[in-house]
Amino acid sequence: MLSTRVDVALRGVRTDTPVRRRGGAGPSDDGHVLLAGRGAALPVVDNSPYSITDGRLLFDGDDTGLSVDAVARPRFYDLTTADGVRYDQLARMHGDGVLATTVVQTCIRYDPADRCRFCAIEESLRSGSTTAVKTPTQLAEVAEAAVRLDGARQMVMTTGTTNGRDRGARHLARCVRAVKEAVPGLPVQVQCEPPDDPAVLTELRRAGADAIGIHVESLDEDVRRRWMPGKATVPMAAYRSAWREAVRVFGRNRVSTYLLVGLGENPDDLVAGAAELIEAGVYPFVVPFRPLGGTLAAQEPAPSPGTVIDVTARVADLLVAAGMRGSDQGAGCAACGACSALSTAGG
After folding, report:
1. CB-hemisphere CA count at 13 Å for 185?
2. What is the pLDDT of residue 27?
3. What 3-state class would DSSP assign to 250?
4. pTM beyond cutoff 0.85
5. In 133-220, which residue ranges form alpha helices assigned H by DSSP?
6. pLDDT for 214-243, tens place per residue?
7. Distance, CA of 51 to chain centre
8. N or C: which end of the chain has fewer CB within 10 A?
9. Is the confidence at residue 42, as pLDDT, over 90?
């Protein structure tokens, strides 16, 4: 199943889905389905050899043996806040039971000279599908409705990087606190760059965040400079320091980081880096790079399926040996797993 899971993630599928993510602060732009019972974010591609018929995944018309169920359109999308903002402009379902929001939809690194080549964080703002800043009150209102009406089981809060020394983390903390007051049992993951002040990580935990993602995307300096020129000015030492402190504050396997396959990093080096992260208690969320419209890398080639399968399988083996599963994080990208094949491989 791993080979099919990776292949369909790269080639996409011909379908239409009620829950779909277009653009935004990350490397995916997908339709959300349950593939063989697991959440999967699959690119919707009109000329893909994969299609869906009668709840089955087909390849050139032949049944792959995998079932597919679309994630239903959330009922909370039809509501608006007391101040007239549509709920779906404030938070979206990114999969089965996963509520997600970008609390600040702008980034100091969005100038073309600094911008991460795979990111389109401000494009959804320009299109009017979201708002620039989500308030704690708004997110608490939306989270309560998403849990009550649609059975949301976890929430992910990310942020564009701000000018402050906290990199936007303190606004995240305010939003987490408000959501936890409205729905105390909802697990929440936060995502931000390494803050200059490590005490902010404790503030996030005390606000109620259950897990944290501090995303580096690549451990290779040449790759970082080419693909993330702005973020590359944050030294790897700052990431490692933030990961150590986050593990101390949140606990082992409650901290994660994206590692993108296909940016040019040597696969053996990528796996070795993942092994170091696992040893430190950080979950390396391995995801294939996919070229997306609205990004600076829209014309870049995707990695080969063989490379993604090899890296995913090796990292999954390391995670299994360490007793680390993404689902144990409770909330976040690793807990959801839809953008990666790691959970299919046992991680």
Report:
1. 6
2. 47
3. helix
4. yes
5. 136-150, 169-182, 199-207
6. 999 999 999 999 999 999 999 999 999 999
7. 24
8. N
9. no
